[in-house]
From TrEMBL:
PANTHER family: PHOSPHOHYDROLASE, PHP FAMILY, PHOSPHOTRANSFERASE. This is TIGR00375 family protein. InterPro entries: Pol/histidinol_Pase-like, RuvA_2-like. It comes from the Bacteria. SUPFAM superfamilies: PHP domain-like, RuvA domain 2-like. Pfam families: PHP_C. The lineage of its organism: Bacteria, Bacillati, Bacillota, Bacilli, Bacillales.
Amino acid sequence: MQEYFVDLHIHIGRTKSGRAVKITGAKSLTFSNIIRHARDYKGLNMIGVIDSHSPEVLDEMEDLLKAGELKEHPEGGLNYGGMSVILGSELEINDGSTQGPIHVLCYLPSLQSMRTFSKWLENHMKNIHLSSQRVYIAGRVLQKKVKDLGGIFIPAHVFTPFKSLYGKGVMSSLSEVFDSDMIDGVELGLSSDTQMADQLAELHQYPFVTNSDAHSLAKIAREYQKIEMVEPSFRELKLALKQSEGRGIKANYGLDPQLGKYHRTVCGECLAYSPTFDDACTECGSVKKVKGVADRIQELRSSEGNQEARPPYIHQVPLEFIPGLGPKMLEKLMDHFGTEMAVLHSVPLDSLKQVISERTAVTIDKARKGQLAFHAGGGGKYGKITD
């Protein structure tokens, strides 16, 4: 068994021809740029490219296979010089059983199965070329199709106020929308962690995954997990999610929830902190609120949780959040130590001090030890380091 760093939620911004896929994604987020950056700069061992259903993205993968830059793994996934690429699709459900839109992640084992899935989706959505599109079918129908193709089904960023399972999708339970037996894991999102999510008893049966939901190259691996597998392949990933045959998630690395964009409840107009839902904002008088993840989880709470039965959740501060660590200093770190994974996990403090300022090096070290203080985010605005 070996340990691998895995980020399963990376968007495509543009195709090779320049066609938009994730409209809010950076133009530099092409498939070829993503795989190079994720492997060589970030130091990841497995990634999920979440807009693989887009026909032009599939065509680019085919071209790279023909050129010998990619190889199909016999156990699923594409191999790019030692890094595994898992083909995925983020879709939006909003049928008659939901209270609001829900985003889900669907992963397929091969290029051919994703081609089949893409062709099927064309009959149930308006624009097959774009990311996160609404599919006009029930959640259970989508689950069954994914399972028929040998895939993995995971509800995405399940607590965020918009377009998520518990944000607005259901009143209280995932069984309102999905078949609980056809869910392979739950993606926590940037504003929650294991301790928070484990307070929902119905989630105790699922592994928690922590992914970046990257809309730019810089955001790749802002959240990820360490998974123990024999090798990085689709089959091994499925076994790990089931905690089967010795495989499993060994640690989740994610933002301290206070750094997330939706951790606390704020005024919907001026984003001032709002400790209650019913009162008008003391700053601007608005009665609109964006309910924070922390408050939503308290509404749904049904358990004390049992974090000891789960992998550790390690609060990670991405390097881009570190005060004073700009692009030039980050580039210097990469030149000396290779990848962000190395800087975040293994480079000693004394070695960091030799390359960057002592103050910034100490901040990175404090982040690794969970010793930083934060101003909590909310209403779409990230939190920030105050210490």
